[in-house]
Design goal:
alpha/beta
Length: 223
């Protein structure tokens, strides 16, 4: 890929940013990463589609895996799990060795189940935006595949989603340039984060640190 990964944001990072800005900064700015059950399962799910040399043809659909993506206008790069090329009469691209036009559809794999938030949808939308810029076509939807439920959810790449993506990319770029890691904001979902013990969300916003430490008897014998 003709980009410098140190100058471009990672596409996958927008999912982390949408989930937790501090988590994103710890991973992508401070280069901190720890495994837990959730990250291990997620890595296993993605291994199934981690093959850039794989191509599958089924009727009027061609599937490719581990497709490199880039947007020079947004300065983001990354890899799509799967891109499906569906045969179409219009609004498509030409493929080498194939007749007619083919419409690219991004498919992102996730380990769990469909979420109430848009954390997965913004990542898929950003992939679609990259494909639009790279191929010069309009992409109106994509799919999220959830391994836990073995279900595929169609996601419309709406103006709302695109605006959310643009806003997040702008803020991510600003934080990256200023080298700022946001303070923590404790949520119920924090306990499932592999960086919980590094982030310490319960004391990052001015909590009583001494009281927190005493809870674990660290200061025992020093009173």
């Amino acid at each position: 890929m003709m980009t410098d990964e140190f100058d471009y944001l990672a596409i996958s990072g927008i999912q982390h940013f949408s989930f937790c800005k501090r988590q994103w900064a710890l991973i992508y700015l401070e280069k901190i990463w720890l495994e837990n059950y959730h990250t291990s399962v997620g890595r296993t799910v993605h291994k199934k589609v981690d093959d850039p040399f794989f191509t599958e043809v089924r009727k009027d659909i061609i599937k490719t895996r581990s497709v490199e993506l880039v947007s020079h206008s947004l300065k983001v790069y990354g890899v799509a799990d799967v891109i499906e090329f569906q045969s179409t009469d219009s609004n498509g691209v030409r493929l080498k060795g194939r007749s007619g036009f083919w419409k690219p559809i991004p498919v992102e794999y996730k380990k769990g189940r469909e979420k109430a938030s848009i954390v997965d949808e913004v990542q898929l939308c950003l992939q679609g935006i990259c494909l639009e810029e790279m191929l010069g076509v309009n992409i109106s939807y994509g799919y999220l595949y959830y391994a836990k439920t073995r279900s595929r959810v169609k996601v419309e790449l709406t103006k709302y989603l695109r605006n959310e993506v643009a806003s997040m990319i702008k803020e991510m770029t600003h934080l990256k340039e200023k080298k700022v890691t946001p303070l923590a904001e404790y949520k119920k979902t924090c306990t499932s984060c592999s960086l919980y013990d590094i982030c310490l969300p319960k004391i990052s916003r001015g909590a009583d640190v001494e009281k927190y430490i005493r809870k674990f008897n660290v200061l025992e014998g020093f009173e």
